[in-house]
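User: I'll paste a sequence; please echo it back and then give the predicted structure.

Assistant: Echoing your sequence first, then the prediction.
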Amino acid sequence: MVKSCHFHFAQNIWKKIKKYGLTKLILNNDNARRQVVNMMALPLLPPNEVNEAFSNIIESFSELRDKCIKLTDYVLKTYIEEPRYPIDFWSHFDLIRIRPRTNNHVEGYHGQLNSINDSFTFIFQSNTKLTPVAWIRYIQESEESTMSRYEQEQAQQRTTRPRKRRTVNNDLRLTEAKKNDFNGRLDLEDYQATLRSLSYRYMVVLDNDSNSKDDDEYEPKIS
């Protein structure tokens, strides 16, 4: 099943915060900041707990209800209540430790193809004796390599791409939290507290660079 990117989920929320002029309010209000990162963490919750979690977020926003109603309405209509994007599309709970939460690897692959395409275009324009055969051969080899890696990942149920230690450690924390939630050792509030470190890091990334495509360079901000 095709899944949306968790980072882009958070990015969409942050874009709305900027559009509605809420950035300063969110960053300077501890409760508002906590509820925003709870929103960003919705894809990591068990799907059957999303509605309860979002209801708690709206209730916690009560002191800022008039100022934040556009934001909560956007999330409600887009992801929760008769949503534009169904929960099966954006939930990553079942895929924690199995598949990446972001599509940075896909974007990187597309960027590589575009770069090579530009190079081949320049060569063809400079030397009319060359044919597109080299470009076609490269695409074929790239597709074969990608399919081979995909089949290997499916068989091993894990990614074959090198991963940064910080990313691996975050996934271990998420896996442990997921197991504790499943076994009833964590309630919803405690589980959300574990997830917030990742979402706070997303907030740091988005506040500093709205065009960033990689969150791995930023340390979590725990609160």
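The chain has two domains: 6-100+163-208, 104-156. DSSP finds ten helices and no strands in the chain.
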